DNA sequence: CGGTTTGGTTGACCGGGATCAAGCGGGGGG
DNA sequence: CCCCCCGCTTGATCCCGGTCAACCAAACCG
């Protein structure tokens, strides 16, 4: 039972059972006992500096990543060079699922602030899944939720007007931050206006103008990247307003 | 080893190993031997008449479905009643993956022509996956590809102009039909202009006008739902044209 | 077989958001 | 500490695609 202190330390450090994100991350909903089984799911951790990429579109796929802390954007680059932001990811969220289908990543994941991820070799995820039903179930749920999330964005882009999209974006951000114990009403945007615009299918000028308009309407307060939500109900009303009758 | 003739017949009829879609569907890439293992994956088949729905958003989730023949659309309805088409599905494609994450379907699947699906109880999919690595691998790939597909649509909606989107849509349809042994250049649209428009984030009038313009430009021939592609290269050029300099 | 309904086409006009342009301010690097 | 550059804001103008409307064709049904 005795083992070198250093090895113990390392295992502790990368063990899901010791992680304060276990309520949000892959092992969500597992009992303490079950969690022990996952303690060798993570092979190692990796720090990514702001502006650096965890992986690029086209690179071979080998592992999934769980955000430990920090903030990421995922981008897709089309044949003719246009770049589209396809998502933003924060602590506890899973990255890299796009790579499973074709053994290569299709999108690029870039840190928007200094971040750290848990590296989970995909072969290990599949092995453990086969032998451990709760992990299998949960992994399938995570994959499915990513599909549902993407379909939500499709609805956003396909059938909502610019102001509705931005309101929905702010409400979503606020909810995800709340789930992580941050303030629901006051936060710092990690991304630029351009990145928000790309994600929401509009130009950065439109994002900026809408922020200003929301401020005039006393829905939010904005100073550069600092946002304070004053009237979350109002934002929800904006995002739900089917274009009113003339 | 002997069993009633009827049971044998039934098993044959629903057996993946006997299905001519095995190259496209869930068992894709499995060897003949391996395929035998899947022969009890499908519990039954279900016919869906044109206009009827396989399942509705909000319904409890219990099974995945593989399209045997026919054509489906998936739609999402937002709180305020707006409907967004999130995808079109044809033979060999998998339906219902949105339901895994929350034990309820989030979207509604409606047949656009008389169709038939193979019903695969999800518990069975997970059981077989745990004991049969090739199925597990392939199932994960299918889930991942759905994510990648959705991200492609996000790029479409977020950063392409109407004519580029419609061109991309036609090219995509043509490719999928080709993979199924149909003509790449001549086909019948199963969906209305309104449904195409919803999927592509534009109004039906715009779809109609663009079809007419493509016809003027000798890229396609349209008569109602009948489409003939005259210049697939031209369509690809349209969809890739980053807005040209003035 | 005629009437009705549903889906498609086309025209005229309008407006939301893109584009072009100018100025500003704050944070990071020398 | 100061400067410079990047990101943000705001204004003026334009145009793509939405809206409203009229008409047509095919499918459907009694």
Strand content of chain A: 15-25%
Please tell me what the overall shape of chain A is.
Answer: globular
Overall CATH architecture of the largest domain in chain A: Sandwich
Whole-number tally of structural domains of chain A: 2
What can be said about the biggest beta sheet of chain A? 6 strands, antiparallel
DSSP, total strands of chain A: 9
Q: On the 0-100 scale, what is the average pLDDT of chain A?
A: 89
Structural class of chain A: alpha+beta
The CATH topology of the largest domain in chain A is Jelly Rolls
CATH class descriptor name of the largest domain in chain A = Mainly Beta
Could you give a short description of this structure?
The structure is a homodimer of 246-residue chains. The first copy, chain A, is an alpha+beta fold and 246 residues long.
Could you walk me through the main structural features you see in this protein, from its secondary elements to its overall organization?
Two copies of one chain form a homodimer. Chain A has 246 residues and is α+β, with helices and mostly antiparallel strands. The first copy, chain A, folds into two domains: 5-132, Jelly Rolls; 160-240, Orthogonal Bundle (Arc Repressor Mutant, subunit A). Chain A is built from eight helices and nine strands. Chain A has helices spanning 5-14, 32-37, 122-131, 133-159, 162-179, 193-200, 204-216, 232-240, and strands spanning 44-48, 53-55, 63-77, 83-90, 94-95, 108-121, 186-188, 220-223, 226-229. In chain A, a hairpin with a 2-residue loop joins β8 and β9. In chain A, α3 crosses α4, α5 packs across α8 (232-240) and α6 (193-200) crosses α7. The relative contact order of chain A is 0.12. Chains A and B meet through β4, α3, α4 and α6 of A and β4, α3, α4 and α6 of B.
């Amino acid at each position: 039972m005795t083992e070198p202190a250093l090895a113990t330390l390392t295992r502790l450090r990368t063990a899901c059972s010791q992680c304060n994100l276990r309520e949000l991350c892959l092992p969500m909903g597992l009992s303490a006992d079950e969690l022990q089984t996952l303690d060798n799911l993570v092979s190692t951790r990796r720090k990514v500096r702001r502006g650096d990429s965890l992986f690029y579109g086209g690179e071979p796929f080998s592992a999934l990543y769980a955000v430990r802390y920090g903030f990421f954007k995922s981008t897709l680059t089309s044949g003719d060079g246009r770049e589209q932001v396809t998502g933003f990811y924060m602590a506890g969220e899973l990255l890299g699922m796009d790579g499973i289908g074709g053994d290569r990543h299709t999108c690029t994941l870039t840190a928007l602030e200094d971040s750290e991820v848990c590296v989970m070799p995909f072969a290990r995820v599949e092995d453990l899944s086969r032998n451990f039903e709760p992990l299998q179930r949960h992994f399938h749920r995570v994959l499915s939720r990513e599909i549902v999330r993407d379909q939500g964005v499709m609805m956003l882009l396909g059938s909502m007007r610019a102001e509705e999209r931005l309101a929905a974006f702010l409400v979503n951000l606020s909810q995800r931050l709340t789930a992580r114990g941050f303030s629901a009403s006051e936060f710092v945007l990690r991304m630029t206006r351009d990145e928000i615009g790309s994600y929401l299918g509009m130009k950065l000028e439109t994002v900026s103008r809408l922020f200003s308009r929301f401020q005039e309407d006393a829905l939010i307060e904005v100073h550069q990247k600092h946002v304070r939500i004053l009237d979350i109900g109002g934002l929800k009303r904006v995002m739900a307003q089917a274009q009113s009758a003339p």
